Model the fold of this input.
Amino acid sequence: AVWDDETWHILASRHVKLARDAGALSELPLAVRSRILLHAHAGELAEGEALIAEAQAVADATGSQLGPYGALAVTAFRGREAEATEVIQATMDGVTSRGEGRGVTSQYAAALLYNGLGHYDEALAAAELVCEYDDIGVLGWSLTELVEAAVRSGQPARASDALQRLSATTRASGTDWALGTEARSRALLSEGQAAENCYREAIERLGRTRMRPAVARAQLLYGEWLRRKNRRQDARAQLRTAHGLFTTMGIEAFAERARRELLATGDTVRK
Done:
């Protein structure tokens, strides 16, 4: 909620270690899910997937019915539409049947997924649903998805409202993750040199964080903007870097989006 990626890493790691060392099986599913969520946001999908099986095994043994929020994030970042939509729907069905109101935050995963796939109307609908609720942590992430989806759907007023809500938390935080995320979102609603300055600030700030997918997305958006300004050589540099990062992390939908943009610049890249 306070955009502090370094402390989140420390606390999530300690939470898992304490639960394991104490043999606290009732606590371990919660600890592991938090760690999986951090792995997803850090672009460590393989590490997150390795913990998903452990979390499920412990949950089955203890009868825990926690929503698989970490697994949702990993699946959404991975970007395989059929697989992700199945997991999202199954999660919604499960939390709805249990009356677990926080389960609506699973639509954050849908917004992330659809923005990666370039299905912006669907991303906007999912993000707006989550943003009706002031959920700790997830609201900020969902507002960033809403800004991107609204701009790409040609609805800047909705994006501007979301940016205003987002900046209330990012300015209060002041971390590179917070201010870099705000700059990336603000760039989408800016023009000319102001937009370019925001993209550059976003890349610089996010590059100092653990959140590699966040910086790759800033480079993707900057590359898309540069291409639309007919600055193809500059665009290729950003898009190649973004494509390389997404591919290395296994973030497939965003990698494909970067590949399509590279092709539009006249570059060649393997699918």
